[in-house]
Write a structure and sequence with these properties.
It is a single chain. This protein has 447 residues and is of the alpha/beta class. It has helices at residues 37-49, 53-75, 100-116, 140-150, 162-175, 207-210, 212-218, 232-247, 266-275, 286-298, 318-321, 341-354, 360-378, 386-394, and strands spanning 87-93, 126-132, 155-157, 178-181, 198-200, 223-230, 251-259, 279-283, 307-310, 329-332, 397-398, 405-407, 413-423, 426-437. The chain folds into two domains: 87-203 and 338-411, Rossmann fold (3-Layer(aba) Sandwich), CATH 3.40.50.2300; 207-332, Response regulator (Rossmann fold, 3-Layer(aba) Sandwich). It contains 14 helices and 14 strands. Strands 6, 7, 8, 9, 10, 11, 12, 13 and 14 form a nine-stranded mixed beta sheet that branches. α5 links the parallel β3 and β4 (178-181). The two termini are 33 Å apart. The model is unreliable at 1-82 (pLDDT under 50).
């Protein structure tokens, strides 16, 4: 859906890249056709001769102005006229369903970054478009195509769900439209299916757990059980944990899983109790994470076997989980409690603007906006200068509420990951688990 005032909202249609000209014979009140130059000239002469002198003078002055404008257009550099209109930005995010709040937070953060810099990109005004992706992978290609083919967006921002992202990825690679990933961590987007026009501003699914293994071993937990849903995000989180934990000297004594989004954990928790590992590491999120945390405590494991996880285990669910979440340790590229002037400033301004507290999704949207600003300003708003645009984005340093980060060769953030512990309903930062952590980018071939 488009916003009010856009072509799709019933307002006037805009054709910023097309100059519409009235046929010469329309001045003479003749039907539009293809008159000869001679016929058209006489028609205009007869029309002017029949007019009062004052009106005739105005028409001639207007014609001269049009000629001057046309001549000026011929003197402008190639692409200047095509880039003089509004930049068209399309959000493809979840606005309904389970992830609706995440979509809103991402859009809020993105718009805030642009607004802080005057609300323009390289001096150009912006026209906004929105499509609800419904977190439905089967509609990924269709919805992305609406923004690219129907709305003709210059920039596509999306999305949250990794399955939906795969549809966006196909459209982005086929069309070449500049695409910014504000959340989805699917590995392929910046690995085997990477592309020069695709940039991620969040993380890969394996990055948080890639920072987790060493921290666990350093705390004396050298034998662990892994548990997660058996789906892409869970498998990719396991990849990161397995690499970091075994490299640090730890041993995964058992890998447990259940189909997504099953939350019947009792049998698996009984198995964990029987194994008696030093610790448990996991990947769950949302309502499933709340259920797992509560079941873990109810099974009597909370005070016996320390629980670790990807940061999403405790992100946005602490109120629902209550005291059962206390003591859980996670790794994440952001924490609400991050004690830096930049984060405090961001949180204050976001709360003033939107009357709610920001989360990691708002930060990722904000940083996606900052990344686009870096590129657009480098090319003075001419997004058609793609090689220069991409080079500026690749070389950008983003001054983020999460801490400064840069872009890897595969277009994924190189960033710090924090060690956090849940205390009294807050993810409290207790250290840096990994400094300047980069995803491998395995299989990425730009070109």
């Amino acid at each position: 859906m488009a916003e009010k005032g856009s072509p799709l909202a019933g307002g006037a249609k805009h054709y910023p890249h097309t100059r519409m000209q009235r046929p010469a014979n329309a001045l003479a009140g003749k039907p539009c056709g293809s008159p000869s130059p001679r016929t058209a000239t006489f028609a205009r002469f007869e029309f002017l001769e029949s007019m009062p002198m004052t009106s005739r003078r105005l028409v001639l002055q207007h014609s001269a102005a049009l000629l001057g404008t046309s001549a000026l257009g011929l003197m402008l550099p190639p692409g200047a006229l095509a880039q003089s209109g509004k930049v068209r930005i399309g959000f493809m995010l979840p606005y309904t369903g389970t992830y609706a709040q995440l979509g809103v937070a991402i859009e809020n953060g993105f718009r805030m970054a642009i607004a802080e810099q005057g609300g323009k990109l390289g001096g150009r005004e912006i026209e906004w478009f929105k499509v609800d992706d419904e977190s439905e992978p089967a509609k990924g290609v269709e919805n992305a195509s609406k923004l690219v083919q129907r709305d003709k967006v210059d920039v596509l921002v999306g999305t949250v769900h990794s399955g939906v992202q795969m549809g966006i990825q196909k459209v982005a690679r086929d069309s070449g439209v500049l695409t910014l990933l504000p959340n989805a961590g699917v590995l392929a987007a910046t690995r085997a299916l990477c592309a020069p026009n695709v940039f991620r501003a969040s993380y890969t699914n394996s990055q948080p757990t890639l920072a987790l293994g060493k921290a666990m071993v350093e705390r004396g937990h050298k034998k662990a059980v892994w548990i997660s849903w058996k789906y892409a995000a869970g498998d990719e989180a396991l990849e990161g944990f397995k690499e970091s934990y075994t490299k640090a000297g730890g041993t995964i004594v058992k890998e447990l899983g259940l189909p997504f989004p099953n939350v019947e954990f009792q049998a698996l928790l009984t198995e964990i109790a029987a194994i008696k590992p030093d610790a448990v590491a996991c990947f769950f999120a949302g309502g499933g994470a709340v259920k797992f945390i509560k079941d873990y405590a109810a099974a009597g494991l909370k005070d016996k076997i320390p629980l670790y996880g990807s940061g999403f285990l405790t992100e946005g669910i602490l109120e629902a989980a209550g005291p059962t979440a206390n003591g859980i340790i996670t790794t994440m590229h952001y924490a609400d409690s991050l004690d830096t002037p930049r984060n405090k400033q961001f949180r204050l301004e976001y709360a003033k603007r939107f009357r709610m507290q920001p989360d990691v999704y708002a930060v990722q949207g904000y940083d996606a906006g900052q990344l686009l600003l870096k590129g657009a300003n480098a090319v003075q708003g001419n997004l058609g200068r793609k090689s220069e645009l991409y080079k500026a984005m690749e070389g950008a340093t983003i001054d983020s509420p999460r801490g400064r980060w840069t872009m890897s060769r595969a277009h994924n953030p190189v960033q710090d990951f924090y060690l956090r512990v849940v205390e009294n309903g807050e993810n409290k930062v207790i250290g840096v688990a990994a400094k300047g952590l980069s995803d491998s980018g395995a299989g990425c071939r730009m070109g």
